[in-house]
Design a protein that fits this description.
It is a single chain. The chain has ten helices and 18 strands. Strands 3, 5, 6, 9, 10, 17 and 18 form a seven-stranded mixed sheet that branches. A six-stranded parallel sheet has the order 13-12-11-14-15-16, sandwiched between helices. With 363 residues, the protein is of the alpha/beta class. Helix 3 packs across helix 4 and helix 3 crosses helix 9. Strand 12, helix 5 and strand 13 form a beta-alpha-beta unit. Bound molecules: zinc ion (ZN) (2 copies). One zinc ion (ZN) binds next to loops.
Length: 363
C-alpha cells in the first residue's frame, strides 16, 4: 500500500480534485509504474463529463509513460527500472478475440471498481480504463505495458499510448493502406494528425485533411497532408474528390461529430472503406445509404485503438520517432503539473490545443 496524489472525479461535469489516494502493491501478473508523463485525451474528458457513464468516484488518464517501480509475481520480460509506455489495452491473452490476434477487443471484462485504487479513507475508487493514470503511480496488468528504449523523452512516449497508436494504426492496421492509395482524414486533432502521418509513413499518394479550422489544416500539412479542405464549405467532399480523382481508398473519421459520420461515405472511391475511429456520445446515430455502399463494394469498419498489437507496434513507432519519421514533440502544445489538470483540460476543450501533457515533478 502506498499513498499517492491523483486527480479524482467525484461528480460528472465538475472539476477533478487532486487528493491523496491509496494504491495497493502489484499482485500476480501486475506492474507498478511511477509515471513521468500522462497526456490528456478527449476520451478522458468525455468520461469526466458523463458522456459514457461509468462508476464514480474515478481516476481517468490512460496515455502514460514512466518507469517500472514494482513487479508482481508471474511477470515475464519486464523488470524494475525499465522505461515503459502504459496503455489501456488490457488483454487476457486467452479469450477467442485475443487468440485471434485482436487484443484491443479482448472479451474478458475488467472491473475497475475492484482495481488497485481506494480513497484515502479506504472507500471505493474506480480505476477508469484499467489505468487511472491521472496519478503519480499506476498498478496495471503486464499486458498493458511495453518496454521502450531509455533515450526517448517520456513526454513524447506518453503520446504513443493512445492518440498515436489510434491514428497511425487506423491507417496501417485497420485500413491497411499501401503505397499509392488515397486517404481522407476527417478531423485534424490529436488522433487525426496521427492518421495523417500514418498515411505518409504508409506511402499514400494523396492525403486530404478535412477540418473546421484553417489553422488545423495548416498544421495537418506539416504532418503530411497533401491537401486541406474546410469542413465548413458547402460540399467539402467535392473539393476532396477533385484532389484525389476517383475518391479515397480509406476515409478515417477521427472526430465524434455526427455530421462528419453522415458525410464520410461520400469521399469514398469504389471499393473504399470508412474507418470509424471518433467516438460520439452513447445513443448518437448516423445515417447513410446502404444501397450505395452495397452497389460499389464499399465498407464501414470500426477501429479501436488502431487495432494495435502493442508489443509489436509501439517499438517500431519509437524507432521511427528516433529516426525523425514519426512526429511526437510537435504534437505537444502544453506542459502542466498535476495540480493544474483542470486548466489543462479546459485548454484541451477549446479545441485549439493538440496534446496537453501532465509532467510529474520528482524533486
Ligand atoms: Zn485516449
Ligand atoms: Zn482476451
Amino acid at each position: 500500500m502506498t499513498t499517492i496524489k491523483a486527480a479524482v472525479c467525484h461528480e460528472f461535469g465538475q472539476p477533478l480534485v487532486v487528493e491523496d489516494v491509496t494504491l495497493r502493491a502489484p499482485e500476480m501478473g501486475e506492474i507498478e509504474v511511477t509515471l513521468d508523463a500522462v497526456a490528456i485525451c478527449h476520451s478522458d474528458i468525455s468520461f469526466a463529463e458523463g458522456g459514457w457513464g461509468g462508476s464514480l468516484p474515478a481516476v481517468y488518464g490512460h496515455e502514460a509513460a514512466g518507469r517500472i517501480s514494482g513487479v508482481g509475481g508471474g511477470v515475464n520480460g519486464l523488470a524494475e527500472g525499465d522505461a515503459v509506455v502504459v496503455t489501456l489495452i488490457r488483454a487476457c491473452g486467452a479469450c477467442p478475440t485475443c487468440s485471434e490476434g485482436k487484443p484491443v477487443i479482448c472479451s474478458t471484462p475488467y472491473d475497475g471498481d475492484k482495481g488497485p485504487l481506494s480513497t484515502a479513507d479506504g472507500g471505493k475508487l474506480h480505476q477508469a480504463m484499467a489505468c487511472g493514470a491521472f496519478a503519480e503511480k499506476v498498478v496495471v496488468d503486464q499486458s498493458q505495458v511495453v518496454k521502450i528504449s531509455d533515450d526517448i523523452p517520456k513526454e513524447a512516449a506518453s503520446l504513443i499510448a493512445c492518440g498515436v497508436i489510434t491514428g497511425v494504426g487506423a491507417v496501417v492496421n485497420a485500413a491497411q493502406i499501401r503505397a499509392g492509395q488515397d486517404v481522407v482524414v476527417i478531423g485534424a486533432g490529436g488522433v487525426g494528425l496521427n492518421a495523417i502521418q500514418g498515411a505518409r509513413i504508409a506511402g499514400a499518394r494523396r492525403i486530404v485533411a478535412v477540418d473546421m479550422s484553417e489553422e488545423k489544416l495548416a498544421i495537418a500539412k506539416e504532418f503530411g497532408a497533401t491537401d486541406g479542405v474546410l469542413a465548413t464549405e458547402k460540399k467539402p467532399f467535392v473539393k476532396a474528390m477533385r484532389a484525389m480523382g476517383r475518391g479515397a481508398d480509406a476515409v478515417i473519421v477521427t472526430v465524434g461529430a455526427i455530421p462528419a459520420y453522415d458525410e464520410a461515405p461520400r469521399y469514398l472511391a469504389p471499393g473504399g472503406k470508412v474507418i470509424m475511429v471518433g467516438m460520439p456520445h452513447s445513443g448518437a446515430k448516423s445515417t447513410y445509404e446502404p444501397v450505395v455502399l452495397a452497389a460499389i463494394g464499399q465498407g464501414m469498419q470500426g477501429s479501436k485503438m488502431g487495432d494495435v498489437v502493442i508489443k509489436r507496434d509501439i517499438p517500431w513507432m519509437v524507432d521511427l520517432y528516433k529516426q525523425g519519421r514519426l512526429k511526437l514533440d510537435e504534437l505537444i502544445s502544453g506542459r502542466w503539473t498535476l495540480d493544474q489538470i483542470n486548466e489543462a483540460i479546459a485548454d484541451t476543450k477549446t479545441g485549439s490545443a493538440k496534446r496537453n501533457v501532465i509532467l510529474f515533478d520528482r524533486n
